[in-house]
Amino acid sequence: MVATGNMQIEANNLKVIKDQLGYESLLNKKFSQYSQMCTDGQLKNLCNEACQIHKENFNSLKTYLDSHQ
């Protein structure tokens, strides 16, 4: 368990968060690559938006995790 004061994250929840961080990072990288490959402007923008969303998700999870250390 990760614990600080009364805040705790159980080991199984910590694994889920760790896995999700990996997924968000991977999706961010993939959408960034897809965006670079796109020639259609709308599709490129859609990939860039998805890339940004997954970056924000990663940062939110990381902030949550850091607040429990």
Secondary structure blueprint with pairings:
Elements: E1 2-4, E2 7-9, H1 11-37, H2 41-67
Antiparallel strand pairs: 1-2
Helix pairs in contact: 1-2
Point out poorly predicted stretches.
1-6
- The CA-CA distance between the termini, in Å, is 10 Å
Quick check: average pLDDT? 91
| Total number of helices | 2
- Percentage of residues in strands: 5-15%
N-to-C series of helices and strands = EEHH
Shape descriptor: elongated
Number of strands: 2
- Roughly what percent helix? over 70%
Strand order, main sheet: write it out: 1-2
User: What is the radius of gyration computed over CA atoms, rounded to a whole number of angstroms?
Assistant: 16 Å
Largest sheet: 2 strands, antiparallel
Which structural class matches the secondary elements? Answer: mainly alpha
Top keywords for this entry?
single chain; 69 residues; mainly alpha; disordered N terminus
What do these coordinates show?
There is one protein chain. The chain is mainly α and 69 residues long. It is built from 2 helices and 2 strands, in the order E-E-H-H. The protein has a two-stranded antiparallel ribbon with strand order 1-2. Helix 1 runs antiparallel to helix 2. The longest helix has 27 residues. The N terminus is likely disordered.
